[in-house]
Amino acid sequence: MAVLKLEIVTPEAKVYSEDVDMVTLPGVEGEMGIFPMHIPLMTQIAAGEIVARKGGQDYFLAVGDGFVEVTGERVAILTDMAIKADDIDEAKADEARKRAETRLAEKLSDEETATVQAALLHSLTQLNVKRRRRG
Question: Which domains can be identified in the chain, with CATH numbers?
Fold first, then answer.
């Protein structure tokens, strides 16, 4: 059976690199399912949840905004955040959310506002993925 090499890279590290049967991505215009032998594609992904199916089991990751390149044999994702659902610390993510919301109420420069909004998006994405998997 054909497989895809799924690689997820952040500025800090290669977060995931495994052969998978399929992957579901949060595209900017909706969810995308990628199977082996998919047509070549390069597009943006939105912050959300990646589902990697391997051997009949699903693995979940929270990801930030980024880009994906798809070939028939490979899915390469470059994103500003990626964390496996099992590794998400819900209490820390909720605390980060609260800090970001408090900071946004302050008078900030445009650059600071963008940084805090990105941090808020990361924490909300982690919380959504963790809570969805818990229930």
Answer: 4-85 (2.60.15.10), 89-134 (1.20.5)
pLDDT for 135: 57
List CB contacts of 59: < 8 A, sequence separation 6 or more. Answer: 20, 51, 52, 53, 84, 85
**Residues in the chain, how many?**
135
Classify 56 in phi/psi space as left (phi over 0), alpha (psi -120 to 50) or beta: left
- Other C-beta atoms closer than 10 Å to the C-beta of 56 total 6
Read off the pTM.
Answer: 0.88
| Structure tokens belonging to residue 17 | 């690199």
Mean pLDDT for back-to-back runs of 10 residues, the chain (135 residues): 92 95 94 95 95 95 96 95 94 94 89 91 93 76
Minimal CA–CA distance to 122: which of 80, 85, 60, 68?
80
The H-or-E segment that residue 135 falls in is none
Task: Name the packing angle between helices 110-134 and 90-104 (round to 10°).
Answer: 150
* Rounded Cα gap, residues 88 and 82, in angstroms: 10
What distance in Å separates the CA atoms of residue 107 and residue 112, rounded to the nearest whole number?
Answer: 9
